[in-house]
Amino acid sequence: xxxxxxxxxxxxxxxxxxxxxxxxxxxxxxxxxxxxxxxxxxxxxxxxxxxxxxxxxxxxxxxxxxxxxxxxxxxxxxxxxxxxxxxxxxxxxxxxxxxxxxxxxxxxxxxxxxxxxxxxxxxxxxxxxxxxxxxxxxxxxxxxxxxxxxxxxxxxxxxxxxxxxxxxxxxxxxxxxxxxxxxxxxxxxxxxxxxxxxxxxxxxxxxxxxxxx
Length: 213
Description:
mainly beta; six-stranded antiparallel beta sheet; 3 helices; disordered N terminus
C-alpha cells in the first residue's frame, strides 16, 4: 500500500485542513489511521493541520530515521504484513498473494497435450500447480490460481501448433518465465465462476509471479 507523507520541519507531516488562520493546539481534531484513533499532538498553523511524522509513520508500520548531518529523513515501509508468497524452488518462481491467502495449499497435477491432427503422435506433459485459498472446502469450493509449467522447448512447440491442450480454441497465456521454464495460465480457467474468481482475476492483474534464479 502506498503511503504519501508530506515532510515539514521538526519531523512533522502536513495534512491540509479547512480551519481558521492562526497557530494553536488542535485539541478538538481526532486523528484516525487505518480506522484506529491515534493520540498525537496536533497543531494548526495558517490553516493547515500539522501531524507528527513519526506518529503517522510508526502507526503505518514504517521506520523513521533522522540524519542530522545530512539533514535527511528516511522512512522505510513495512510491507510484509499485508502479503504472503508462494516460492517454488523446483521450477524457480515466486507468487505474491494477499495476506488473506495465508495458509494456502498447493494442489499438484499434470497437463497433457496431444500432437495436432495425430492422436497417436508424440505426447507432451508437464506440471500443473494450483494455489488454493485456505477457505476452500469440498462443499463450497473457491477459485484456485492455476499455473501450468512448460519447458521453453515445450512452450515454443505449443506456439507453433505442434500440439494442443484441451478443447479450448485458444491456448494458455504466458505469465512469466525463467531460463528453463515458462509459467502460463490455462485458457478458460475460471469458466465455472466459483466464489473468489473475481479476486483471482484481480490478483493476476497485479503481476504477482516473478522468476527466481
